[in-house]
Specification:
Layout (H helix, E strand, L loop, with lengths): L2 H31 L7 H23 L1 H4 L8 H20 L4 H4 L2 H8 L4 H17 L8 H102 L4 H26 L12 H16 L2 E7 L7 H22 L3 E9 L2 E8 L19 H11 L3 E6 L5 E8 L6
Parallel strand pairs: 1-2
Antiparallel strand pairs: 2-3, 3-5, 4-5
Length: about 425
């Protein structure tokens, strides 16, 4: 309830508390001024006694307000009894002197608060009888014209009070609906606030999970980069040094030492770029087709395996992430071929096909059973699962076809995302 509503409610309470006293005082004063309308002294005593009874009744009713405070403005049996007794006193006073109809008019003010349901209309009609009798010249009417005037005034007062009562009931209904709407809005606001608090907690939890996922993803990225760069480079260096150890003359040894030094420099550059999340060294100055061509040629020269590289379709400048992903997959696949396949021939094909880029690596090695491959090899490598994760990271997928004794074919298909200008 707003401050304005509280102030209006307080004023209504003051009217209901002091209004009957004021109207009784007005009626008594006008009756005293027009004393000739009161005949025998017994009527004076009767009027005085009734005025005193009205005051006592009002004092009693106002004294019970503290007990009624918790019920608000809700009709009750006590309120109906109070209304009936007050009406009877007002009717008797008006019978003695018509000016006491001012006091009888109090029935118009609080019938909606004292009398429940349809009985309220009856209470208003009873008050209208008293007021109409006073307006027509006093009770009881003493002539036919006075009876006719009384009837007309009673109809007019009743009709007016019926309209007022109807409007009052509608206003009460609207007030009740507003109160229910406000209560519903308060419940909705409470539920909304709870939802907002829950969303805030969920948002904080998601942020924590996102940070944890980001840390885990960065760790996987660095692990894969180290595996694809430093680990492969060290493997190549070891292979070259083994050749040096068994070299028959100094020239062959020097050649392989130069290759080992080149691999060491290459691995160092890759390590630096992996930490900084930059593109592979091979892509620093070349596009993916040229980088793959150089990588395949270098791998064939280092391993002695006959290998061919082919580009199919019109080559396009790819997004850096797509190029880096396909190059890393090719490097890992060739590294696996060198370590495990014992192949004599291999082939790498890069195909630009509409909205896809396809990388195929095949060899004539000893093959394997793809279903028997674990997520990580015993030596700590990432293998097929690492290549598959790289492809899926850019919305692609990896397929492997292999059979023991019949070689291996690996195909990575990723969306063709062009380089940002």
């Amino acid at each position: 309830m707003t401050a304005a509503d509280t102030q209006i409610e307080r004023r209504w309470q003051q009217v209901h508390t002091w209004g009957p006293y004021g109207l009784l005082a007005i009626g008594a004063l006008l009756a005293a001024v027009s004393s000739e309308l009161i005949g025998a002294p017994g009527e004076w005593y009767a009027a005085g006694g009734l005025v005193l009874a009205a005051i006592v009744l009002q004092l009693w009713w106002n004294g019970t307000r503290s007990r009624r405070a918790g019920h608000g403005r809700i009709p009750s049996r006590a309120g109906t009894a109070y209304y009936v007794v007050r009406w009877a006193i007002a009717f008797a006073l008006t019978w003695i002197n018509p000016f006491f109809a001012f006091y009888a008019a109090t029935g118009y003010m609080d019938a909606d608060e004292l009398i429940p349901g349809m009985w309220r209309r009856l209470g208003l009609f009873a008050s209208a009888i008293t007021v109409a009798g006073a307006q027509s010249g006093g009770l009881p009417p003493k002539s036919v014209p006075q009876w006719i005037g009384f009837a007309g005034l009673l109809v007019a007062n009743s009709a007016l009070q019926t309209v007022v009562a109807h409007l009052t009931e509608q206003e009460e209904q609207r007030s009740h609906q507003r109160a229910e709407t406000i209560s519903e809005l308060e419940r909705t606001n409470t539920a909304l606030q709870q939802a907002l608090d829950e969303n805030a907690a969920l948002h904080a939890q998601l942020l924590v999970q996102a940070r944890e996922a980001g840390v885990a993803d960065e760790r996987r990225r660095l692990a894969a980069e180290i595996h694809d760069t430093i680990a492969q480079g060290l493997t190549g260096i070891i292979a070259q040094l083994q050749v040096v150890a068994n070299a028959p003359d100094l020239d062959i040894a020097r050649t392989h030492l130069d290759r080992a030094a080149g691999l060491a420099r290459h691995s160092l550059g890759e390590a630096r770029r992996s930490v900084q999340n930059l593109a592979p060294v091979a892509l620093e100055n070349d596009g993916l087709p040229d980088a793959l061509k150089n990588t395949v040629a270098e791998w064939g020269e280092r391993t002695g395996v006959r290998v061919e590289f082919t580009v199919a379709g019109p080559a396009e400048q790819l997004h850096d992430e797509v190029s880096a992903t396909l190059l890393r997959i090719a490097q890992e696949a060739l590294s696996n071929t060198a370590r495990h396949a014992r192949a004599t021939r291999a082939g790498v094909t890069l195909t630009f096909l509409g909205d896809e880029v396809i990388l195929d690596i095949r060899d004539d090695g000893r093959g394997f059973d793809p279903l028997a491959v674990r997520q990580r090899t015993g030596t700590g490598g990432f293998g097929l699962d690492g290549m598959r994760a790289r492809a899926e990271r850019i919305a692609g997928h990896l397929t492997v076809e292999s059979e023991p004794g019949h070689g291996t074919a690996l195909s990575a298909r990723v969306p063709l995302v062009r380089h940002d200008p």
